[in-house]
Amino acid sequence: SGLIALDEGFANTGGCQSSITFINGEEGILRYRGYAIEELCQKSSFLEVAWLLIYGELPSKDQRDKFVSDIVRHSMVDEDIRKFYEAFPRTAHPMALLSSVICSLSTYYQDELDINDEDAVYMTIVRLISKITTLAAYAYKKSIGQPFVYPDNSLDYASNFMHMLFSVPCESYEVQPAIAKALDQLFILHADHEQNCSATTVRVVGSSEANLFACIAAGICALWGPLHGGANQKVIEMLMNIQRDGGDSQKYLAKAKDKSDPFRLMGFGHRVYKNFDPRAKIIKASCDEILNNIGVNDPLLKIAKELEEAALSDEYFASRKLYPNVDFYSGIIYRAIGFPTNMFTVLFAIGRLPGWIAQWREMLKNPGRKIARPRQIYTGPNLREFVDAENRT
Ligand code: CMC
Asked: Atom 46 in ligand 1: which residue has the minimum CA distance?
């Protein structure tokens, strides 16, 4: 064990070489395949970015049209899958439902699970990106006891998702183009973030040559945790608590600084960004605009801004280089659009899906790849003799 370097949380360990996403944590730079995140948000679309991440280049017009039309055409799920939702409790968290049904897709496409067959992999990629919105919308409908709404293939990706969530059989939800665009941009912002916890999970599970549905289900589970994607839900819950407490953000800052209190300021801090998170910057800037657009005046936005200001001028946060991350303001936009709080991490999962697929594909295409199998430093007892139950103290 003397030869093993211990690196808790892999903070200083490179697990792979990657040409997908570039992050410069000191300068707050994020690029997908060399393109600045700011430019992609302005000029591209989520499905185009998905192609870019997975296949390495922006798609030609024909490639993009085919990819989009394939995704649109595969948005339905097998009717039997609805029965799974009947069996889940209504109070279940949608991330639990999503990971379960995504994994169960591997039971429906058994002939296409060969990870070495490019055509089968393409179909799996299309099915995943397409069906994740339908399955996520079903999870929401289940939780509020409403009938499921089928996809409408005449709508773009984000609009179709909102239609399935918010339409009811007696009334179609009218999607405002500006809101659909805002959601599409949020998906782009979440689409990849190099070797984060869920991407690493996908790579690790994939390294055993498990099928892609299984790998993505594992990624969804990793994302669910409050220190990762689950933080977006926790941020809003924290802001609501502050509101209930009369807006006393100082009390929450004090709790976050208290080392005997496990509470952390949710939506603050990042393993790589030590100056600012460029995604948070973009989201904060669009927050006011989107809320104005929808005509929402959310008091939580004011609380969030006050909390951010107070934290940034506090020695504890400044000395540890803790800044708002992607999750700090995204929930305020989701809330304004009408998404319930427990769906926020599902939105993150939909956005992150192309990144997971890209990381999985890159891992498999590496000719030198090995099964992920870290070592350990054993700290348990040395060899000892078994004691019969009656002689144990
Ligand atoms: N509130 C209070 N203290 C914090 C926070 C926070 N949000 N984040 C880090 N710290 C402190 C931490 O206690 C430690 O202090 P000390 O040096 O005195 O022991 C120091 O800052 C370094 O923290 P760390 O835990 O070693 O940093 P990490 O790189 O292991 O963790 C993190 C990164 C994101 C898990 C952490 O900052 C955190 O828990 N943040 C809150 C949860 C959150 O917002 N997560 C979303 C991350 S971005 C999107 C995503 O990945 O999904």
From this structure: 228
pLDDT in tens, 377-392: 999 999 999 999 999 9
Give the pLDDT score at 169: 87
- Is the ipTM beyond the 0.90 threshold? yes
At 116, give phi and psi (nearest 5°).
Answer: -100, 0
The letter for the amino acid at 6 is L
How far does the centroid of ligand 1 lie from the alpha carbon of residue 80, in Å? 42
Give percent of the chain with pLDDT exceeding 90. 93
The answer to whether the pTM exceeds 0.90 is yes
Which has the closest alpha carbon to 50: 36, 30, 67? 67
270 CA to middle of ligand 1, Å?
A: 6
On the question of pLDDT at 1 being above 80, the answer is: no
| Residue with CA nearest ligand 1 atom 39 | 227
Ligand 1: residue whose CA is nearest its atom 28? 271
Q: Where are the alpha helices (DSSP H) in the chain?
A: 37-43, 46-55, 61-73, 81-87, 94-108, 118-144, 157-166, 177-190, 197-206, 212-224, 231-244, 249-257, 278-294, 299-312, 315-319, 326-337, 344-365
